[in-house]
Amino acid sequence: MKAILAGGATGGHLYPALAVADKIKRRNESSEILFIGADKEVSSDIISASGYGLRTIPARGFDRRNMLKNVGVMKDLAICSIQIKKILTEFGPDAVIGTGGYVGGPVIREASKMGIPTFIHEQNVLPGMANRMAAKYADEIFVAFEESREHFPKSRNVKVTGNPVRRGFITAGAMNYREKLGLGDRDMAVLVFGGSQGADRINEVVCDMLTGVEDMRSIDIFFITGKRSYFDMSRRLDGAGLVGGGKVRVIDYTEAIHEYYAAADLIVGRSGALTVSEIAVMGRASILIPSPNVTNNHQYHNAKTLSDKGAAIIIEEKDLTPTLLSEEISKLKANKDALNTMSQAAASLGRPGATDAIYDEIVGRVGKT
Fold first, then answer.
1. Does the CA dihedral 161-165-170-176 come out positive or negative?
2. Whole-angstrom Cα distance, residue 138 to residue 97?
3. How much is the pLDDT for 276?
4. Which domain holds residue 255?
5. Edge-to-edge strands of the sheet including 140-143?
6. Are 269 and 321 part of one and the same domain?
């Protein structure tokens, strides 16, 4: 199979695309994969490092606050259309898969016009603008959550597949990561993180909680701060005697975050689509703090898919305080039955076969592996 994958710059769009690409290559090593991305993006380095081919186009997102700036965006779109047609003609893909963002939409549109089978994958409960606009050009639409169906009312071929997650999350149960990370069987362990870049508000509140709430010092905390805040958080916690042989382990960033998921009893963090899917696949209780700085408040809706099933507690950032967060953690520490019930509810929503489901649907329509 020859496949083109296109998506936006964020990890939420990029990692599902990489997971699908990896699946295609594992099933047939002779498959050819090409990514189309926006020029001047950090994600380009990640794609190149994965070993896949990459072509870039001068795509940009629309500025919703200053419409005058979109004149230049429209000019770039016209240039992008010409470049996309050239790439599609030269590469000759059997399938084109878009994972959202301002690159995915134009690529799906042009591929559809050329009669190439097209697919889109939506990671969030509330679809982004690019995927909503591209839906009429897609032969099939893959969504991560059942609740997403209603947002594609005119599309008949909507399949609930889940979000592709990295292989480490699927295979994590094969190893005792609690032992690897030095935890006892009865220790309460909490993983705190705000995404790959960290989240300033979560970092500040967690740091204040750890230094100010005595009860939190009996809990093992894996605190992933993001590289930007690592030095400041480490310095403050070290000054309080919580680092270096203590119960708090401060980490700037890790590619092996699945190990900490597997070791933890409770996850505290944002509710991006992939995080929510990873929590469900791992079957972990969670306290979710949706980012208020995202389009259509979509992280809140992602979090609700877990909280509505009793798998998560939602704390909105405007309500987040060290006291409230410590109280919620303490309640779960004192009630292991409630913690286990939340974990089981999360596991019931997990879709570890998401990547396989997407691959099988593509092969079924294209007729090539």
1. negative
2. 9
3. 97
4. 169-348
5. 53-57, 32-38, 2-6, 95-98, 118-122, 140-143, 158-160
6. yes
41: left (phi over 0), alpha (psi -120 to 50) or beta: beta
Distance CA 62, CA 2 (A): 30
Q: How many whole angstroms separate alpha carbon 118 and alpha carbon 121? A: 10
- Report the phi/psi class of residue 32: left, alpha or beta, with left for phi > 0 and alpha for psi in -120 to 50: beta
Q: Which residues pair with 268 in a beta bridge?
A: 192, 287
pLDDT (0 to 100) of residue 254: 92
Over residues 238-265, the pLDDT tens digits come to 999 998 777 999 999 998 999 999 999 9
- Kindly give, in sequence order, each residue whose CB lies less than 8 Å from that of residue 78, ignoring residues fewer than 6 positions away: none
- Helix, strand, or coil here: 141? strand
**Residue type at position 1:** M
- Can you give the pLDDT at residue 66? 53
Q: Which residues of the chain have pLDDT under 50?
A: 71
Query: According to DSSP H, which parts of 198-256 are helical?
Result: 200-212, 227-239
Q: Does 222 share its domain with 187?
A: yes
CB atoms within 10 A of CB 23: 19
* C-alpha span between 158 and 121 (Å, rounded): 10
Asked if 259 and 180 count as a contact pair (C-beta separation under 8 A), the reply is yes
DSSP, collapsed to helix, strand or coil, labels residue 193 as strand
Q: Note the pLDDT of residue 37.
A: 86
Q: Looking at the structure, do residues 197 and 264 belong to the same domain, yes or no? A: yes
Length of the chain: 369
Maximum Cα interatomic distance, the chain, rounded to a whole number of Å: 64
| Residues 148 and 173 occupy one common structural domain | no
- Is the pTM higher than 0.70? The answer reads yes
